Sequence to fold (550 residues):
Amino acid sequence: MVSEHKIADASFESLLRIFTVPEGPDSTLTRIEEELSRNLNQFLREHIVAEEKPLKEIEKDFSNPHIPEAPEFVSEHTQHLMDTLVAQSVHTASPSFIGHMTSALPYFLMPLSKIMIALNQNLVKIETSKAFTPLERQVLGMLHRLIYAQQDEFYQQWMHSAAHSLGAFCSGGTIANITALWVARNNALQARESFGGVEKEGLFKAMLHYGYQGLAILVSERGHYSLKKAADILGIGQQGLVTVRTDNNNRLCPDDLQLKINQLKSQNIHPFAVVGVAGTTETGNVDPLRAIGEICQKEQCHFHIDAAWGGATLMSSTYRHLLDGIELADSVTIDAHKQMYIPMGAGMVLFKDPHAMNAIEHHAQYILRKGSKDLGSHTLEGSRSGMAMLVYASMHIISRAGYQLLIDQSIEKARYFADLIQSQTDFELVSEPELCLLTYRYAPDNAIKALTIADEKEKTALNHLLNELTKYIQKKQRETGKSFVSRTQLNPARWQGLDTLVFRVVLANPLTTRSILHSVLQEQRDIAQTATQLLAQINQLSQSIISSQA
Ligand SMILES: *Cc1c(COP(=O)(O)O)cnc(C)c1O
Fold:
């Protein structure tokens, strides 16, 4: 190192400074803060490089396992972060990145997050959060009312009641789903007679006492993988997560649900919970919630709705009806970090009955004392940040009517994109959008014609080639860095359940224009033309199938 170069030392004085005063006016960090606040989108565009660097290369920047012995200047380190980390991150807010459920954020959340972080409140207990606790309870009340629409007196009675809770705020849909099923399990195996309840005596004794051979949770084939984690950690076992058939629109079939429940009961396996999905992760479809709710009422199972992604639709009076029957649920998961445009780490689970969460109540001496309003006595997580503040702020700044505009434009944009895809001769719409999510693939006209008439073997071969092409296009598009769609595998009825790779698009970003959608298709078409060999194979096989049938 050159001698003029200033070296930071590990002095206590400089440590005190980093805890108290900001960086000087010409520091890198100050400059970045100014850039960020002048134009967020421009900042992201300028500092995230579009071209993809191989992950192997990126890993080289992050391969030193030693904790540094000497401190670095903030500016120096900030520059290092800009070069190695920010530059190689994903531009999730880009209007042409339409593959993720978490997208652009409104600007006001940046400075508000700073306040939240500066305050660093811990929502586990009132002593470390004070007004944040009633604020979080109010947010839960708002979401509860959005789903269950109880009278105002209901909320006055329960929202701030120490011994009750309308739900739990948590880091995301996974924890929310686990919490809901935890409550359902404990209620299904609650204390009675000599038995102290599953939470005290464990699953083995609960099974002996209740005389069951096992427990089951039912969900459609399109259920989110977090439910598998829930089944695992709650001791149900992944095999206890029973899948129910879906129809051509990826919605759970109520008849099959009833059938599966009957089968389980005849084997003395207790189906204690059914999960309906309101907005599946892969296709965005909504299960027939009312029909499922009625079966649950009859069978006395806990009805949970996983509306992690689709729940925000309730704020649109235009499209709320798509979630008809949601009020029949005993519990509902909603992720604010998806269609409510909140930064990640904002999930919620709401319970219809304010007493429901007593089934998972935990107390400790130094914290969460009985009768306290501490939120931590009803949450799976311990220490938690004040994220609810951002949901609260967005509800006020955007308002219900504003969210309706956001939801409506995204659903209508998805409809527009679906029609656009269908009007092309070389694209196939695979799943129709119900909310703002759809799937499709690149498939030339004659390939579709050939698939329709091919025999089993030819069909599999041709579909395999189309899958290769989808994979190629999606990967190339991502690497080029101009736009991004995600990819998943479906088994469409149109092709008799063949494993079909598809592009998956989520149109939540309000900055995504129709012309961007046109260019996404054009880019995919152009990329397809560069797969000369694959295209030739597809064309050849399609021609031969068509001519052999003629
Ligand atoms: C995203 C999602 C989840 C999981 O939520 P996380 O916030 O990622 O933990 C669960 N269910 C559905 C339907 C989802 O879309």
Summary: The mean pLDDT is 94. The chain has 19 helices and eleven strands. The longest strand covers residues 269-277.
